[in-house]
Amino acid sequence: MLRTVLYLGVWVMSLSASSVLAQSYQITEISSGESVVTKNRPVVTDLGGWHYVKKIVVEAEGIGKDSMVEVWVNGDLKGTIYAPGRDPQYTVTIGEAAQRIVFKHVSGARMRILSTYAWLSDEIDLPGGGTGIVNANIAIKISKGVIGLSRKISATDIDAYNFTTYLLPVKVAAGRVLASAKPSGRDYLSERVRIQLKSLVAQISHADPLIDRMLSEEQTFEFAVDLLTYKEQILNLLN
């Protein structure tokens, strides 16, 4: 059997090396045991969420003869592991935030992934004072929270006029935050997401007359407090 070690140098969110500050990394075993990559079954190594990944080290071996496997991140091909009759090492630059690493069979024999180690950090600094991937995840959680909150209010708590005038615009604005932040896979707080977050804050502020009335009533007090809390969380996120 032959063994191959793959080194992946990963820069998060397509930033140059100069855009990322010096960081400390935790070496984490993200997979262990024997996972076999075959023609019809890729191996997916999950990182447990979005992380800054400096590199990963993969120990693998061809089964019986030469094997070739591709390395994919966020739908993009980033490198190839070729396992010939010797023990080479490979370095592949990624340039992406990583949530998972996918190994897809290309040709030859099956390949056995023996272990995968990753150099991980959640410390990120973006150019221009931007926030990091953790904050973008918070934006998603806030928008989902606001949407969920709007579903809890009942017809007995608020009339149709106040819902349409005040709460429905808040729900729509939260949906736009979610739509902007969620699909790209580049999970930093982009300018588009920041604009949508500011719009959500404005809509919550517009609902202040209703929120004040809800704070004075026991059955709606908790709802109003939660909505104001989400507003404060957004303001903290934008600062």
Plain-language structure description:
Strands 1, 2, 3, 4, 5, 6, 7 and 8 form an eight-stranded mixed beta sheet that branches. The relative contact order is 0.16. It is elongated and about 75 Å long. Helix 4 crosses helix 5. The protein has five helices and eight strands, in the order E-E-E-E-E-E-E-E-H-H-H-H-H. The N terminus is likely disordered. A hairpin with a 2-residue loop joins strand 4 and strand 5. The chain has two domains: 120 residues, Jelly Rolls; 110 residues, Four Helix Bundle (Hemerythrin (Met), subunit A) (Up-down Bundle). It is an alpha+beta fold and 239 residues long.
Brief overview:
With 239 residues, this protein is of the alpha+beta class. It is built from 5 helices and 8 strands; from the N terminus they run ββββββββααααα.
Topology:
Blueprint: E1 2-9, E2 26-37, E3 43-62, E4 67-73, E5 76-83, E6 89-93, E7 98-108, E8 111-121, H1 133-152, H2 160-181, H3 191-206, H4 208-215, H5 218-238
Parallel strand pairs: 1-6
Antiparallel strand pairs: 1-3, 2-8, 3-7, 3-8, 4-5, 4-7
Oligomer: single chain
Broad CATH class of the largest domain: Mainly Beta
Helix/strand class: alpha+beta
What average pLDDT do the residues reach?
Answer: 75
